[in-house]
From TrEMBL:
Spans through the membrane: none
InterPro entries per record: Pol/histidinol_Pase-like
Highest taxon of the lineage: Bacteria
Protein name (record): DNA helicase UvrD
Species, as recorded: Candidatus Curtissbacteria bacterium RIFCSPHIGHO2_02_FULL_42_15
């Protein structure tokens, strides 16, 4: 079976995060989106950890369930006089997760690295939190705590708490806070993690890069390419996600898919996979990387940006103010790549899928969140009542947002909503859109019909400023 997982988000206890990010709301929106396994986020925060212990129940598979959801499903099953297993597709599982910001010096340079940690039990999380407190970490300050512990030492601490922990470098290309970051990162995983590098089985691409960009990096050839939303609000959940395929939904299935369903020597060999009946990554769901906040090099205050080719030609000094530009993800990938990506595309149900040419890595599909499509089609803000009402109509009819974006019949969408909304979804499936690249903390602008309402742009940017200060 295939199931969608979004394993990077934040709770209301993280800075610049919506207060609506509670366990009950996260579970509700996971159902709307079509997400089967969702991160708890922020388990290091003592108040949030207390809520995890109180509101979640062990599902017996290394994942957790929301008690109130289980109760509602049981009541619904009794009312319908059916077995509770009939409603299993409605179940949402939580995977215990956190993001930690490490700020430290290494190699004569200041480092600021964000890493994700996934654990299979609350008992292991409790051990990990205690060890961080013993290291003088202030876990009450933020749901994403800042520690003066290196990435290497954090990995060692986590592995001592549970050998099945997953350690995933977060949004690895972000200029300021990531493993390959232009201003505070490293040039390789081994340089960052030292002897712990062998325990880093996968990376998170981040919104400003896609798998094709990461396929060019030799350092990542033996590691899983993962995509998650890093959501700070409910509507942003699932804007990126990873789809796993396994015989069961479990922590172990996620672990096996990431850590290697085949040998570490040839992790993406089609022949090796054919001999194993194991968990794997089926595909990833991507943001268009141009829409990410750091895709191009530039200066937000000066409204100035440039492509990697222009950066090579003109340098990294702002032509407006004369200060150093914020180096974009696309340029940083160009600096570290060992080869050019060779890709091929397939179109199924109008959806454009991208595959690496010549190996068995999972494909990906690039989408625009349904709320953004509706916003442009209806010429209304993404959080307006008009957009939310239409969103709920579509999602309730076709079971989830991902079904609307990837599977629903276009004619049925047109009959239910409007021809323009159906056309927008069809254009997004085909990749027939234009995106003005983001830079220096400014999101790129999607133009499905190659025109945009300036007032709506300003309103959406104001909303992003409120909810994404530190995303």
């Amino acid at each position: 079976m295939k199931f969608v997982a979004d394993l990077h988000l934040h709770s209301k206890y993280s800075r610049a995060v919506s207060q609506d990010m509670t366990l009950e709301n996260i579970a509700k929106y996971a159902q709307l989106k079509g997400i089967k396994v969702v991160a708890t986020g922020d388990f290091t925060h003592p108040f949030w950890f207390d809520q995890l212990k109180t509101e979640l129940v062990d599902a017996g598979n290394g994942l957790y369930r929301l008690k109130t959801n289980d109760q509602r499903l049981s009541q619904k099953a009794r009312a319908l006089d059916v077995s509770p297993s009939v409603l299993d597709e409605k179940k949402v599982y939580f995977l215990l997760s956190c993001e930690i910001s490490s700020i430290y010096s290494q190699g004569g340079k200041g480092r600021r690295i964000h890493n994700l940690f996934f654990f299979p039990s609350l008992a292991s999380v409790s051990k990990f939190n205690k060890k961080l407190v013993d290291k003088k970490a202030n876990l009450r300050s933020d749901g994403r705590p800042i520690v003066g512990i290196s990435s290497r030492d954090l990995a060692q601490i986590a592995l001592l708490c549970d050998e099945k922990v997953l350690i995933i470098p977060a949004h690895i290309w972000t200029p300021w806070f990531s493993l390959y970051g232009a201003f505070s990162g490293f040039d390789s995983i081994e340089e960052c993690f030292g002897d712990m590098a062998k325990h880093i089985y996968g990376i998170e691409t981040g919104l400003s890069s896609d798998p094709a960009m990461n396929w060019q990096i030799e350092d990542l050839e033996n590691r899983a390419i993962l995509s998650f939303s890093d959501s700070h609000s409910l509507l942003k959940m699932g804007r990126e996600a990873t789809v796993f395929e396994a015989e069961e939904v479990s922590y172990d299935a996620v672990y096996r898919a990431i850590a290697g369903p085949v040998s570490r020597e040839a992790p993406f060999s089609r022949a090796s996979r054919a001999t194993r009946n194991d968990a794997k990554i089926a595909f990833t769901i991507e943001f268009h990387p141009e829409e990410g906040k750091y895709h191009y090099t530039g200066h937000r205050d000066c409204n100035f940006s440039q492509s990697p080719e222009e950066t090579v030609k003109d340098g990294d000094i702002c032509a407006v103010c004369g200060r150093k530009l914020t180096i974009g993800v696309m340029h940083r990938v160009e600096q570290l790549k060992s080869q050019n990506s060779k890709v091929r595309t397939e179109v199924r149900n109008g959806v454009r899928w991208v595959y690496p040419d010549g190996n068995g890595r999972p494909p990906y599909v690039s989408l625009v969140p349904l709320s953004e499509i509706l916003s442009e089609a209806l010429e209304s803000g993404v959080t307006s009542k008009k957009v939310l009402d239409q969103y709920l109509v579509l999602v309730s009819t076709f079971a989830s947002e991902f079904n609307v974006l990837l599977k629903a019949d276009i004619e049925q969408i047109a009959n239910l909503a409007s021809p323009k909304i159906a056309q927008g979804i069809e254009k997004v499936r085909a990749g027939d859109i234009v995106v003005e690249p983001g830079y220096d903390g400014k999101f790129g602008v999607v133009k499905i019909w190659n025109q945009q309402n300036p007032d709506k742009n300003e309103k959406n940017e104001a909303e992003e400023k409120q909810l994404n200060l530190f995303a």
